[in-house]
């Protein structure tokens, strides 16, 4: 762990007459210092009591600000060690878009490293069987992977593929190649996808893998892919660290017309 963070924060940075609560003002100031790189990763923030005296606020106020930072995945709190910055501003952020979906996913596969955590042939749940349009008695391959970006945990992925397609590649292939490339090689090039995007709190097991605090905000994308024949070939739930991945889109509007995505 590095030395204590040199946090430039004083009582004059707070406005007691503002409608924004003091804990949130403190949170915002420290968050900016962390995200901007002013405070280095693995450095230790000032102790709660030090900030209480420096800022002239209650300990409850400082404690809540620190807890919010932990929930946001920016710091981790240790008993006896204090509050340590875990966010690294030098790690790049991946941007995705609704347009050029497949190409974007292929680029992501090239830009990130994948670790195969688990794979097995299982009976699908009713929801998976319906999504993949499978008949009674069919089996699927369940694949659990972790993606890293610049050696930092980036996304946690749980994928289901019909067993007859999964037979065309090996476990070693899954550990070294992108699943999009393997599907294409198997003759099932993804051509269409339906996806749903939601925000979810990090469950303990997922939080541990992604290196964030339980309850931290995550971006979850559920996607069903189809090949050229319209057959569903993949059901995937991808959970991304919100500080490492963002979706963006450009909207345009012609005169007297609705907004459309380009």
Automatic annotation (TrEMBL):
Pfam families: GntR, UTRA. SMART domains: HTH_GNTR, UTRA. InterPro entries: Bact_HTH_transcr_reg (IPR050679), Chorismate_lyase_/UTRA_dom_sf (IPR028978), Tscrpt_reg_HTH_GntR (IPR000524), UTRA (IPR011663), WH-like_DNA-bd_sf (IPR036388), WH_DNA-bd_sf (IPR036390). Keywords: DNA-binding, Transcription, Transcription regulation. Residues 20-88 form the HTH gntR-type domain. GO terms for molecular function: DNA binding; DNA-binding transcription factor activity. It comes from the Bacteria. This is GntR family transcriptional regulator.
């Amino acid at each position: 762990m590095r030395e204590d963070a040199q946090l430039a924060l004083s009582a004059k940075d707070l406005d007691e007459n503002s409608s924004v609560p003091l804990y949130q003002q403190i949170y915002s100031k420290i968050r900016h210092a962390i995200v901007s790189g002013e405070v280095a990763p693995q450095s230790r923030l000032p102790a709660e009591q030090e900030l209480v005296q420096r800022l002239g606020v209650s300990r409850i106020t400082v404690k809540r600000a620190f807890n919010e930072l932990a929930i946001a995945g920016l710091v981790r709190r240790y008993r006896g060690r204090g509050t340590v910055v875990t966010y690294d501003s030098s790690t790049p952020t991946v941007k995705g878009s609704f347009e050029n979906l497949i190409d974007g996913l292929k680029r992501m596969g090239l830009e990130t490293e994948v670790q195969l955590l688990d794979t097995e042939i299982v009976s699908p749940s009713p929801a998976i069987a319906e999504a993949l349009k499978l008949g009674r008695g069919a089996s699927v391959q369940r694949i659990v992977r972790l993606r890293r970006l610049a050696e930092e945990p980036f996304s946690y992925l749980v994928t289901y593929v019909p067993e007859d397609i999964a037979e065309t590649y090996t476990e070693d292939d899954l550990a070294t190649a992108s699943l999009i490339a393997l599907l294409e090689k198997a003759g099932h090039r993804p051509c269409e996808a339906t996806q749903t995007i939601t925000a979810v709190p990090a469950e303990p097991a997922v939080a541990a893998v992604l290196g964030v605090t339980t309850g931290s905000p995550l971006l979850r994308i559920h996607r069903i892919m189809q090949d050229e024949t319209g057959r569903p070939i993949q059901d995937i739930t991808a959970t991304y660290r919100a500080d490492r991945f963002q979706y963006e889109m450009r909207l345009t509007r012609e005169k007297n017309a609705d907004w459309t995505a380009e």
